């Protein structure tokens, strides 16, 4: 057979042929002397030489590959790029029929470690993987005397994950890790679970090192066959459920903005006439804008989470309350400088609304001189108050000695004064009414947002 070959090449060829034939005939490894002289590399040459091919005796039979993993950290979840970065230990177990030996022949050696690069490795990949594989070089595998190979590798998995940030910061995500083979169809490679998924979940939960933003909730698994054209690929899908720790966001986002809104609501108790209310509210609004600018980094950059709606709601509440203050200030200004005439029906309605009892006087007629609608808090209104002081009291008899002209003028002044009082009263009523509407809106929107968050 080697007659036509140069001498040394022929010898080498015959050696390889011998080894291959040895491998084909009796697939087990001659392990004698391993316990005394250490492992003989020559004994494994035949197996190592086969590493380019799937190790099966009959090419029609599939390789059964069992997989399992342990999730040891959830490093980052990027809502903008929709990526989850996690760290896991992947365990791959398969059977190599050429890697068997008789442990009795070598002093009971049942397990050996071999550099992984010498062996055929199943090409298990994660479908969602979005990065180059950074598997460190020089990994080892464990081989048992029955040919069971156990290969563990650490992986930093940057996987694409459909993130739904609507409930941010109270959101839960469900990320998928799909394990499968690149090239081997289901006729050549069959995947199975090495461990129960509950066990994987339990181990990961107890092992997880990071105490970051994300908490692992559970891992679920299902098997699937992916069909591409006429080929079927075996896949195992893991659903990793994770939950965000919301405390950072509650403290930094929700609490300050709630305080600002609460202060805004309380500022309605500043008297509208004092003129302090509008500047106060403008300051609050400015402060809130600065807060929003600063906290923009904490918010997810994509999508519209409920918290953005909440912030927009807070901002619009503040703007509304500022507008209300402007309106009331204008109304008060109008009432005290040039009160427009008030329709009789409106006046009666106002009286009906403000004083349901009988203590209030009706609209001023010729003979009525009382003025119960005295503006109470009017620091800027010296003149009308003085006028009120000069007014004859209700039920007091009018002095008879005044001339007619003075009497008419007084009556006119009284009427004007009354009008001012009614307008001021109306402004206060509007203020109270709008404040109640504001409170109603505030409470209902907060309730809505809370209900949406908790469901
Ligand atoms: C195994 O190898 C030893 C020498 O290393 C040899 O003496 C022995 O005959 C071999 N056994 C078999 C079954 O080939
Ligand atoms: C190889 O496997 C196929 C199907 O599993 C079977 O039909 C065939 O007989 C096997 N060949 C040998 C030599 O065992
Ligand atoms: C793979 O796991 C199954 C049970 O899930 C087991 O029967 C089989 O022997 C395992 N295969 C290997 C190569 O460990
Ligand atoms: C995750 O999503 C998949 C479907 O995409 C679903 O079957 C599974 O039940 C979900 N898991 C959890 C824990 O929500
Ligand atoms: C996982 O843990 C739960 C409780 O934490 C326990 O009930 C269950 O039996 C465990 N499962 C396994 C496979 O260890």
UniProtKB/TrEMBL annotation:
Domain Neurotransmitter-gated ion-channel ligand-binding, chain residue ranges per copy: 51-246
Taxonomic superkingdom: Eukaryota
All residue ranges annotated as the Neurotransmitter-gated ion-channel transmembrane domain in the record: 253-415
Main subcellular location: membrane
Record membrane topology: Multi-pass membrane protein
PROSITE patterns per record: NEUROTR_ION_CHANNEL
UniProt-recorded name of the protein: 5-hydroxytryptamine receptor 3C isoform X1
Localization (cell): Postsynaptic cell membrane
Pfam families per the UniProt record, alphabetical: Neur_chan_LBD (PF02931), Neur_chan_memb (PF02932)
Recorded family membership: Belongs to the ligand-gated ion channel (TC 1.A.9) family.
Cited function: Forms serotonin (5-hydroxytryptamine/5-HT3)-activated cation-selective channel complexes, which when activated cause fast, depolarizing responses in neurons.
Matches recorded under InterPro entries: LGIC_TM_5-HT3, Neur_chan_lig-bd, Neur_chan_lig-bd_sf, Neur_channel, Neuro-gated_channel_TM_sf, Neuro_actylchol_rec, Neurotrans-gated_channel_TM, Neurotransmitter_ion_chnl_CS
Species whose genome carries this gene: Echinops telfairi (Lesser hedgehog tenrec)
Catalytic activity: Na(+)(in) = Na(+)(out); K(+)(in) = K(+)(out); Ca(2+)(in) = Ca(2+)(out)
Gene3D superfamilies: Neurotransmitter-gated ion-channel ligand-binding domain, Neurotransmitter-gated ion-channel transmembrane domain
Keyword terms, alphabetized: Cell membrane, Ion channel, Ion transport, Ligand-gated ion channel, Membrane, Postsynaptic cell membrane, Receptor, Signal, Synapse, Transmembrane, Transmembrane helix, Transport
Signal sequence annotation: 1-22
Membrane-spanning intervals of the chain: 248-270, 307-332, 433-453
